[in-house]
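Q:
Got a chain?
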Amino acid sequence: MTKRLLAVLCVSLVFGASGFAQQDVAGAASRLELQGQFKQAADLLSTALQHESVPAGERKKLEFELDRLERIRKDFSLTKEDLFAELKRSVKGLTAEEYDRWLAEGRFESREIDGQRYFAHTSVSNLYFRYPELNARRMPPKDTAALQKARLESVTTIKKAALAEKKPYVLPKRFHVTMTVTAKPTAAPPGEIVRAWLPIPRRYPFQDEFTLISTSPPVRRIDSEESPIRCVYLEQPAKKNAPTRFKLDYEYTAHAVSFDIKPGTVLPCDPNDPSLKQFLAEAPHVVFTPEMRALSQQIVGDETNPCLKAKKCYDWIAENIKYSFALEYSTIRNISDYCRVKGYGDCGQEALLFITLCRLNGVPIRWQSAWNTFPGDEDIHDWTEIHLAPYGWVPVDPYMGLWAMRYANTLTAEQRRQIRDFYFGGLDQYRIIANSDHNQTLTPPKRSMRSDNVDFQRGELECGDKNIYFDQYSYSLTLKEVKLPRAK
C-alpha cells in the first residue's frame, strides 16, 4: 500500500458518515511529524483539505499544520556533512572524531525528516552560546569587551540620574528610524497586490512623541497609540522581475527607566482587577503544566512578597538558562515549556518562561517587544513588564539578566550583578516597543496565516490569501539619534 493511499484511507476513516473531525486529522499528522514522517503527514493534511465539507475555520488550522511542516524543514536545513563543513570554517582545529563526539553528546538540535537526520541552521552560532569555553577557538574571534563596558556605563548613568531626579523616567533621547521590508521578485505574481504590516512605537509613559515622517507607498492605515500590536498598514502591486519594497521613516522619543523598588512596600495584586486579570491567566505558550508548577515551587518556595517572588524567578533564569538563537516560534507548540525542558532559549523564549512563572505566582506580567537598538547590539528583541503595586508597570528583561551573568565575561562579578539587577525594574533608552502583549491580531487582520503568530518585529506580508514567509523577504532597520524637540 502506498503512503498516499494510506493517507486517503486514514482521512476517510476520520471523516466517516458524520462529517469532518479536524482534530483527528491534525492529531494524526502531528504524530507522524514527531515520528519523522513528514511526507506522510503532508499527504494526510493535503487529502483532508480536498474535502469540501471542511469548515472555513478548521481549513485554516489544517492549512497552517501543512505549512508548519515546511517551516520546520527550513529551520532544519543542514545535513551532517553540511554542518561539519560549517563548523570546520568556524572552530579552530576541529577534527572528525571531535565532531562525532559532539553529535553523540547531542550538542546540536536535529530532526529526523523522512529517513534522514537534519540539523538546525543556527547550530554553529548556538554552539558558542551553549559551550562558551569554545569561544577561544572561534574563527574569527568575537570580542564583546567594548559592548560589555558600554552596557555597564549605561546602567550606571541611568540609575544615578533616576536617584538624583527621584523619578523613574530619565535621560530622554530622540531617534530617527528608517525601516525597510523588501519582498523578493518571486514572492508575488506581477500586478498582484502585496499587503504589508510594519511595526511602529506605541505610547508609554517612557516612549512617546511619535511622528510618522514618510512612507512608501502611502500609508493605508495606522493603529492607535494604545494598540497592543501597533503597526502601519501598506499596499502596493508587485512588479515583474523586481522586488516589492515597503519603507517607513519616523521619529520618537524614549526615556531610560529605573524604578527604585522597595520590596517591603509592594502590595499583593487584586486578582479580580479587570485591568490585570488577563495578565495573571494562562495564554498561548503560557501554560501551567505540572512540570512548570513544580519548577515554580522549587524556585519560589515559601516566599510571599510579589516583588521577591518575581526576582527569584528572574535570578533563576539568569543563572540556569543559556541563550540560543531560536527556531521559528510558529513551529513550537509551547514555547515556555520548550525553554524549560531544553535549558536554553532566545530572548522571547526566556520572556515567556518568566511570564509563566510569574503568573503562576500571582504576579501580573505581560510581553513587551520589537527592537533593541543599543549601539553595537542592534536586533529584534523581547522582554516583559510586571505590575507591582504601588509602582505600576515595571520593565524586566530576563535576557539581559542572563547575558550579564553568563556572557559578560570581562566584567567583575559585582559589575555583572549590577547589570542583572538594573534590568529588574530598569530599561535603557535603546528600545523600540511596538507590542504590549503576545499572540495579538493585526488590523486589518491578515487573510492568510502569520509568519510569526506570537511576536511582531520583522513585519508581515501577504498576497491575496497567501502568506509571504520569512524566506521570501528581508528586513532592515537603521536608527540615529537626533535633537530633542523644544519643551512647550
About this structure: The chain has 14 helices and 19 strands. The chain has four domains: 3-76, 79-137, 164-256+448-482, 260-434. The two ends are 78 Å apart (CA to CA).
